[in-house]
Amino acid sequence: MKAQKLFLIFITLCLVTGCSVFESAYAETIGEKIITSFDNKDADKLSDLFCDEIKSKATLSQEIESAFLAYKGSSVSYNITDKGYVEKSLREGRTVMKRYTPNIDNIVTDDGNEYYIGFTAFEICEYNPDKVGISILVLYDKNGNQLAIIGGSD
């Protein structure tokens, strides 16, 4: 009973203070770099964020260019959300895999366009180091219509 009360107090504190036990600077950093790459139409910097598995795709540069064509203007505001990891694996007390699926919501550009971006990225993946980085990125308009996909499986 005492453990249940402590757990409820912990959850309540997190809800009241807005803390996230699993939030990561990794997801925030990747999100910021994505926005900067889109704003500057910098295909090389965006490509560098993808995992080696996706970088080896013959169509990666075409996918990036298509996304840049769909994204009009430069961001004036946005919000990176869902920064916590969605999957984590431990082996002998050591983290061997950590995967995130953050969103960049409420992107408003200087042209008045509104978008959001969802992506999946591995921070750690010891069983396959070629998966570290972004594996898929999807650009949507404000109505949820898919405008472009970068990466993913063939």
Describe the fold and architecture.
The radius of gyration is 18 Å and the shape is globular. Helix 2 packs antiparallel against helix 3 (43-49). 35% of the residues lie in helices and 36% in strands. The N and C termini lie far apart (51 Å). Mean pLDDT is 86; it is low at 3-22. The protein has 154 residues and is α+β, with helices and mostly antiparallel strands. It has a single domain (21-151), classed as Nuclear Transport Factor 2, Chain: A. Strands 1, 2, 3, 4, 5, 6 and 7 form a seven-stranded antiparallel beta sheet that branches. The longest helix has 16 residues, at 2-17. The chain is built from five helices and seven strands.
Offer a few descriptive terms.
Nuclear Transport Factor 2, Chain: A, seven-stranded antiparallel sheet, 36% strand, 154 residues, alpha+beta, globular
